[in-house]
Amino acid sequence: MNKALKATKTQRDIVYSVCSYGLDKVWEWGPNVGGNLWRTTNDITDTWFSMKVIGFESPKSIASFSRPNGWNDPDMLILGKLGWGKELRNTRLTCNEQYTHFTQWAMLAAPLFLGCDLTQMDDFTMGLLTNDEVIEVNQDLLGKQATLIYENADIQVWRKALENNKQ
């Protein structure tokens, strides 16, 4: 795929997402095959357990692999109305869990892919997804993923270096 992308003459940017659902340490070899992002985990579900494992356990040891034009991808955001066709339902995450989910993905410099129906977005979800301060953290030019600096039982403290020595 890397060779095909390099051989392609196009006027548009192409983003190459490498997905092996977090298997085979894709973050180690994804950049070498031309990947711009790589899935670091299995599929996320809209439960606190799934979001906690994918957002707070899986990223602990792979922060160094994330950088501009090469991103760890913990899967889509599971906010708003989810499902297929007429079978849409609200996410099972509470409001506080949704705040945590979106904020952690921003801290991880993760791609902010939405898994919801954009035509059915409620005011809460729209407000959450358009929070300028959180988006600014995600889009920081330094491109660093947050790292875990403290953990004790169910408490974690993450730090993200930002451009101009901000944190």
TrEMBL record:
Gene3D superfamilies: Aldolase class I (3.20.20.70). One of its GO terms (biological process) is carbohydrate metabolic process. InterPro entries: Aldolase_TIM, GH, Glyco_hydro_27. GO terms for molecular function: hydrolase activity, hydrolyzing O-glycosyl compounds. Keywords: Glycosidase, Hydrolase. It holds the Pfam family Melibiase_2. It comes from the Eukaryota. PANTHER family: ALPHA-GALACTOSIDASE MEL1, ALPHA-GALACTOSIDASE/ALPHA-N-ACETYLGALACTOSAMINIDASE. Belongs to the glycosyl hydrolase 27 family. This is Alpha-galactosidase 2-like.
